[in-house]
Design brief:
Length: 283
């Protein structure tokens, strides 16, 4: 297996085992403008980044897929945002409250998505947006948790993410959050599965390369949740991690579990400097 991974980096056996094309395509430099607002999709990486420059996953998509994200009326992810608007003001649970009763308009969460996940002082651990939403449901609404990667959760995360569209990601990784970040980093660089690959083997060493019919990106989270044409729904970050692990024939970690939450924190921090785009459109 080691041999395969070595040749992966050399671009040899990789083409045979996974179907990578031999040529490395450059990401396009198309400009993203939504609602008259221009959102950079290619930025210089901050000091200390493992990447020389940062690319939104959008630049690796086909012109047709890119176009769907440029117009909110064409973006199928927005249908789910509309659904979340309804959920937002619908009372649920034993307290008989809706999100709106305590948080007002979704705009009150402007900027929040760009700093997520973050250290939650009261809980004493790093919380994803999903964690915060479920905590509100259980603790403040007396309602059941939503499925971590389910439709209702993805839609609400999309509605909240939209309030941070264009905001620059600034995930804080120091202080008490550092241990979780280290854990996520270790998972990111650990080879797993029958193909003996790590996240970094694809998204750091080989972005820009074609893998089967897919143009490999840096695996950034700035576009999440992402509407995928493949499954016609909004996909959460951890839903995507699960798919990537399955593709390398590894047993995925539990969605909502400690490993994936740490991984989401670490991967989010690799996007520090990129603007938030969610909900994005992907193939
Ligand atoms: C009964 C009041 C109440 C309801 C209803 C409620 N929340 Fe909360 N929510 C809170 C409180 C209190 C906090 C913690 C204080 C804080 O950090 O803002 C919080 C925190 C949050 C946070 C983290 C905010 C941050 O700045 O860190 C998010 C996100 C959130 N709630 C989303 C929701 C969503 C979505 C709903 C509806 C499904 C909801 N909440 C329903 C009271 C409520
Ligand atoms: C065999 C190569 C491979 C490995 C290993 C891999 N992925 Fe992926 N990943 C892909 C492909 C192909 C896609 C779809 C095209 C793209 O966006 O890169 C993708 C997409 C993604 C995306 C979506 C990016 C976007 O903008 O929509 C994220 C996030 C991601 N991967 C994270 C991970 C993480 C975290 C790991 C490690 C657990 C991992 N991937 C392992 C191949 C891989």
């Amino acid at each position: 297996m080691k041999k395969i991974t070595k040749s992966i980096l050399a671009g040899g056996m990789l083409a045979l085992s996974l179907g990578f094309a031999t040529q490395a395509n450059e990401p396009t430099d198309a400009v993203m403008t939504i609602d008259g607002v221009t959102i950079p999709t290619h930025v210089k990486a901050p000091a200390g980044s493992p990447l020389p420059e940062l690319f939104s996953g959008w630049v690796f998509r086909s012109t047709e897929t890119q176009a769907m994200q440029l117009d909110d009326f064409d973006n199928p992810g927005m249908i789910f945002v509309d659904q979340a608007w309804e959920t937002w003001s619908t009372p649920e649970g034993s307290a008989g409250k809706s999100c709106a009763d305590c948080h007002g308009e979704p705009e009150s969460f402007a900027g929040l998505r760009a700093v997520m996940p973050k250290w939650n002082e009261a809980a004493g651990e790093v919380y994803t947006l999903e964690d915060y939403i479920n905590e509100s449901r259980v603790k403040y609404m007396g309602a059941d948790k939503w499925k971590y990667s389910g439709g209702k959760m993805a839609a609400m995360v999309a509605l909240i993410s939209l309030q941070s569209r264009g905001d620059i990601i600034n995930v804080k990784t120091d202080g008490p959050a550092a241990a979780t970040w280290e854990k996520g980093k270790e998972i990111y660089y650990t080879r797993v599965g029958q193909l003996d690959m790590s996240c970094a083997n694809c998204h750091e060493d080989n972005y820009g390369v074609m893998i089967r019919a897919d143009h490999l990106s840096q695996g950034q989270l700035n576009g999440f949740p992402a509407y995928r044409l493949k499954n016609a729904k909004l996909n959460t970050a951890q839903g995507r991690f699960k798919g990537c692990m399955k593709n390398i024939r590894a047993t995925p970690y539990k969605v909502g579990g400690e490993e994936f939450r740490a991984l989401q924190f670490y991967v989010a921090s690799r996007g520090n400097g990129l603007p938030i785009e969610g909900p994005s459109v992907r193939n």
